[in-house]
Design a protein that fits this description.
Elements: H1 12-15, H2 21-34, E1 40-44, H3 50-57, E2 61-66, H4 69-81, E3 88-90, E4 102-107, H5 120-128, E5 131-142, H6 144-151, E6 155-159, E7 163-171, E8 175-186, E9 189-200, H7 204-213, E10 216-222, E11 233-240
Parallel strand pairs: 1-2, 1-4, 2-3, 4-5
Antiparallel strand pairs: 5-11, 6-7, 7-8, 8-9, 10-11
Helix pairs in contact: 2-3, 5-7
Length: about 240
């Protein structure tokens, strides 16, 4: 059965070239330095590894983890192409287990939105168990405002020379279901690939309650540190008690 990112993995960073990974990565690097985080980090839901590569170049010892085999394969190839030694391992955000405890765990770009609301508290407890005392868990979510007011019941597309991306979003009670279609050039023809994504709508109250139950102290801010509740992305910077 096709899983989310089975086909999109190969094109993910290419199609997201407008999100400015350089600035986004620097936001995390500056924040980790400001908070005196240690040097050993784990990127949960690493995807194709853009943030892991940027942090490794900044001197952090990174490990990347993702549930998607296709994403892990792409991440390993991109890191090798840049001469970076980054282990990439299979990891489930809902049941994270690691062989060591890390100074920080970074979980960026919607990974937590793929967890149902009733799995948050358990997931956060597992994540806390993979951190040193005082370690940081830094994650973001696509905000309730973004998913319900901008994404829901809309379609988006991106037409490039060798690939066309289409997504169709349907609002359900507690989630947005997204049907993704890729048309990828293969010789003189295009082959169609389809996959389904489900992003759950998390309220700030629900997230903070689950974090507290897992033993985290949290502060919040918008994308790249912006203020205001209507930010498309909410960051949660959490310290393990």
């Amino acid at each position: 059965m096709t899983q989310a990112y089975d086909y999109l993995a190969e094109w993910f960073e290419f199609l997201n070239d407008d999100c400015d990974y350089s600035t986004w990565s620097q936001y995390f690097i500056d924040g980790l330095k400001r908070r005196n985080a240690g040097k050993r980090g784990f990127e949960l839901g690493c995807g194709s590894g853009a943030f892991s590569r940027a942090l490794r170049k900044a001197g952090y010892e990174m490990t990347g983890g993702d549930i998607s085999d296709a994403m892990l394969s792409k991440a390993a190839r991109l890191a090798k192409a840049e001469g970076l030694n980054i282990p990439f391992v299979k990891a489930d955000a809902a049941h994270l287990k690691t062989l060591e405890r890390y100074d920080f765990i970074l979980c960026a770009n919607d990974c937590i939105n793929y967890l149902p609301q009733d799995k948050l508290a358990s997931a956060f407890r597992h994540i806390a168990g993979c951190l040193k005392k005082g370690g940081l868990f830094w994650f973001d979510v696509s905000s309730e405002y973004k998913l319900t007011q901008k994404v829901a019941n809309n379609m988006f597309g991106d037409d490039r020379e060798n690939v066309t991306y289409l997504e169709f979003n349907t609002l359900k009670e507690d989630r947005v279901e997204t049907d993704v279609t890729l048309f990828v050039r293969e010789g003189e023809l295009f082959r169609r690939y389809d996959e389904k994504h489900t992003r759950y709508i998390h309220t700030e109250e629900g997230i903070l309650t689950a974090l507290k139950a897992a033993g985290f102290r949290a502060e919040t801010e918008g994308h790249l540190g912006e203020s205001g509740q209507k930010s498309d992305r909410r960051n949660y910077i959490c310290e393990k008690a």
